[in-house]
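fold-stage: in
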Amino acid sequence: METIVSSEPEIVSSFVTSQGRIAICAKCPAAFLKNLEMDSGFGNFRDYSSIIQQLDELCTIAESKDGTVTIAVIENNLIAGYFACHYPQPDARWSKLGELMYELGALEVSRNFRIHGIARQLVRTVLTEPFIEDKIAFMVGYSWTWDVDGSGFSLDEYRRVHLKLLEPYNFQEFYTNELNIRIREENIFMARIGSRVCPADYKRFKRLTLGIVES
């Protein structure tokens, strides 16, 4: 039987702010995303560039295998925040464990909407999905991608923001010798072991953090 793919997202919640009503939309299909606009608070700034700036990039993730795009939409057509998750890139170390690993990729809220707790809502929406229990979900925080200038945070404060966002969902920091992560002490590697991940797979993951690949 042919699977019918919905062209509409799942509206998880909505709330009213001083800047209008914001809706949190999960599992956004590319056909839906193509009709939206990115807020002006994403882009290239003096000391910071958004990781994702074009709708096409979000659409590509939404169309990938088990890729998920969760967004905050204001006034029905303006993206105020996004959380794009996907399997690791083929050339990344973490892809060595195949579909066991699931990357919490780009999470960003527009500079114009950072007072409404949008990031917390995006994270909660993704990390309460049953799908996550079969995976080792991980997040890599590279300090050179953080909006220190726009937030007013120091690197250490920005790092603590990441920890605070993910620790309620049983994420923890793991040591890794992966060069891009170790190159700066502020960088973070966090992971959550799903409840249905077996001990053998957890062991494979722990060894992979040290660059040891097991079949």
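fold-stage: in (second)
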Amino acid sequence: MRDLLHERPFAEITVQHIIDRAGVSRGTFYARFRNKDDALYASVERMYAGLTRHLGQPPRDPRLAPVAELLTHVGDSDAVRRSLALSGRLEAISALLTDFVADGIEQRLPPRGAGALVPARVTARMLAGALMELLAWWVDHPGRLTAEAVDAEFHRMARSVVRADGTRG
């Protein structure tokens, strides 16, 4: 999928292009995916799962999300972003990625204190939304901060939110 997105807008990619590139039959494709959008979403899910493998286990690795890795990946994917934007899919992919980030953050949040003000899911979604805003800003302002600096700043802000919400950490 990534190779095809480098070559043309997503709207111009057909199921036939996907199965030809993957070297599978039409039946194999439809046994796994409903349509090309489903294949795109699965590709994003695999990409994010791969990025999360860079996280170590807490408490040794206190990061809530693989921010530097995500920014580096997105920064290296101008053609993919352009393809998705031209096809009107960038917003849907951003929403899907926000869901994946929120799920990961929720799993890595420290245990909730008795005085936690909101459910962990809400805190995780808020932090995921903040990360997506930082990502958009970073893409629009190339060279202002390194991916590692944005990672550090996100986690500094996230720790203050987590503490204010009544969790340990």
